[in-house]
Amino acid sequence: RMNSQAGLRQLQQMIDQLIEQLKSMGMSDEKAEEVREMMQMNMDALSEQISNHVGLSLAERLAEREPEAKPDLMDVPLQRLGQEDIDQIRDEVRRLAARLRSRASLRQRRAKTGAPDPRRTMRSNMKYQGVPLEIKFRQRHVKPALVLICDLSTSMRYCVEFLLTLVYELNDVVAKTNSFIFIDDMVDISMEFKEREPQTAIARVMENNPPGYYSTDLGNSLNTFKKDHMGLITSKTTVIILGDGRNNHNNPRLDIAQDLQRKSRRLLWFCPEAPSMWGTGDSDMHQYAPVSDGVFHVATLRDLANAVDQILVDA
Questions:
Q1: What are residue 180's DSSP bridge partners?
Q2: Domain spans, the chain
Q3: 3 pLDDT tier (thresholds 50, 70, 90)
């Protein structure tokens, strides 16, 4: 099409040159303009024919082309999702949660018997003169207790929404969940989920904490958590921090991260940035990672679902 347009422009220049030459050879202006008008009409007709031909050829090529495969939203980086993808992926998150819940429930049913308990077996079989006819098993409590600490800065919002959806849709396979969000300070959002269904609660959290030009300060947020909420952390608690570790060059308060790691069952990070980005710019991930029990790279929804499933497996 571009070549055709260039050729027509060149033809227009040639017509202008021809008219000037005819005038210089003695043709009257009136006659020369008649010639120009006739040639212009022919050129316009030619242009229309070219456009029609190009359009038809393009349509034929498009019709013959194999349709391009739409990328699986499970594997699209969360930070690149467009608004047109969000409704579809929200439905996918709920389906994922249902699958994870079924798998976790099955694992918990299988694990209920636990390992053989010799003492209970001996006591129970005294009536059989100590012959172990009835084997007793230890009861295992496999439902994890979770504390979520989520970075709600602009680039992390969808990731936070999807993690909260996954976790709270799994409430029957999780013993207890307390949730917090932060940008420059820590906010407890647990009550939202105690009083409402997950989708309504998440919508309220997002509405009440809109994106803005805040300065992320995880260190200050951790300090608030230590003052007001450290009593939630026990040896049965798994703490998950969802964030990219970028802290605007503020004090990362590694001492508090170490306290969390020491008091909890596990301190885990869900980080959307690859390890190659840790420590670049204002990133403190290279300092947080060594004081954590594990870091999951959660760039996509598939990564996020696998990380949540692994936590349930490890419970």
A1: 149, 188
A2: 2-64, 78-111+143-314, 114-141
A3: very low
How many whole angstroms separate alpha carbon 49 and alpha carbon 195?
68
d(CA 136, CA 228): 43
Give the span between the Cα atoms of 273 and 277, in whole angstroms.
6
Q: What is the pTM of this model?
A: 0.70
The amino acid that residue 209 corresponds to is N
- Strand 145-151 to 176-182 pairing: parallel
Helices H / strands E in the chain, number of each:
11, 6
C-alpha–C-alpha distance, residues 61 and 97, integer Å:
42
**CATH topology for the 78-111+143-314 domain:** Rossmann fold (3.40.50)
Q: CB burial class (10 A; 0-12, 13-18, 19+) of residue 17?
A: exposed
Tens of pLDDT along 281-303? 999 999 999 999 999 999 999 99
